[in-house]
Design a protein that fits this description.
about 350 residues, eight-stranded mixed sheet, Rossmann fold, Dihydrodipicolinate Reductase, domain 2, six-stranded parallel sheet, alpha/beta, 14 strands
Length: about 350
């Protein structure tokens, strides 16, 4: 029998991926779901396996002493309030990105978590992908040398074909292009550049296409980040593009470069400097949450919980650094757009 019971709040696209991944881990299973849609416990249990109790009252679900972890898969505007409530109820937390839609609310979540002493996992799951793990390994082995320039860009046209489109177009529900989706690129940049941020300067714009013109905020942004170690990075968050999903990486270092799944390094003798060498890794090439590496992330989280420590790579403390930079970038873009 698995050790940790998980309650899910929200029952949509992301929740389905969370349920599947959690149930496939070695230590946890989903035993409760809270949704305003009035779900039938028998039907949901048959669909996902196990014995799942369905709630409509979130307070009632988090009052259940048999639930050890709450996974927050609701609308982003609800994340902060629900995370704070769960932390105060003594529940460990899995929080879908973003943590909140304002920096003040992120700080409030952080305060509640620290006071309650609960463990956290924020869904910047791309850090657990084969692509980012391979890239990080190349960096740590010194094959690229000291990185002085990096581009990590997120291209994903979130139009009417996506269920989230109906609320994602609203500023009060999604916040910005970066908060909505491009946060994965910003987080990946921070994962690759091991340095504190010195400054950020951003601009934003949007598409005139009828589907994307419905957004209440600029759907494309570009941010230039200066790091305290001297490196410079660039992050584009483009959710109004008409093209296949593309997560772009270009890292330039003192001993080599990496471009998506290709690299060159002076550290490996006899490589042809006029030709890229290819890395056989699975790329981040889909915006479908069913393709995201939640299983690896959640397995790491539950194992860390079991050992009484914070999880690696994507704890609340890690995610706060990314969110702080995102809010600073959005503020810069807003101020620059007013000039």
């Amino acid at each position: 029998m698995k050790k940790y019971n998980v309650g899910i709040v929200g029952y949509s696209w992301a929740a389905g991926a969370h349920i599947d991944a959690i149930n496939r881990t070695s230590l946890a299973q989903v035993t409760a779901i809270c949704s305003s849609r009035g779900l039938d416990s028998k039907e949901i249990s048959a669909r996902h396996g196990g014995n799942i109790r369905c709630y409509e009252d979130y307070s009632e679900m988090i009052a259940n002493p048999d639930i050890h972890v709450v996974s927050i898969c609701s609308y982003p505007a609800l994340h902060a309030k629900q995370a704070i409530m769960a932390a105060r109820a003594g529940k460990n937390l899995i929080i879908e990105k973003p943590i909140a839609l304002t920096w003040e609310d992120c700080l409030a979540v952080e305060k509640a978590v620290k006071e309650a002493g609960v463990k956290t996992c924020v869904c910047f799951e791309c850090r657990f992908s084969g692509q980012l793990q391979t890239v990080k390994s190349l960096i740590e082995q010194g094959l690229l040398g000291k990185i002085h320039y990096a581009e990590v860009d997120y291209y994903h046209g979130i139009g009417p074909s996506y269920g989230q489109y109906r609320w994602n177009i609203k500023k009060e529900e999604a916040g910005s292009s970066l908060l909505s989706a491009g946060c994965h690129a910003m987080d990946a940049l921070l994962y690759c550049i091991d340095s504190e941020v010195d400054a950020v300067h951003s601009y934003s714009t949007g598409s005139s296409h009828a589907d994307f013109a419905k957004y209440e905020y600029p759907t494309s942004s570009v941010s230039i980040i200066k790091f305290k170690n001297g490196a410079v990075g660039k992050v584009a968050s483009v959710i109004d593009c008409l093209q296949p999903y593309y997560f772009h990486f270009h890292l330039v270092g003192s001993e080599g470069s990496l471009l998506d799944n290709k690299f060159y390094s002076t550290k490996i003798k006899e490589l042809n400097k006029n030709k890229w060498s290819e890395l056989s890794m699975k790329l981040l090439d889909s915006g479908d949450v069913s393709d995201h590496p939640y299983l690896h992330q959640f397995e790491a989280f539950f194992k860390a919980m079991d050992e009484g420590r914070e999880m690696p790579l994507t704890s609340l403390a890690d995610a706060m650094k990314t969110h702080e930079l995102i809010f600073a970038a959005d503020k810069s873009a807003e101020e620059n757009n007013l000039k």
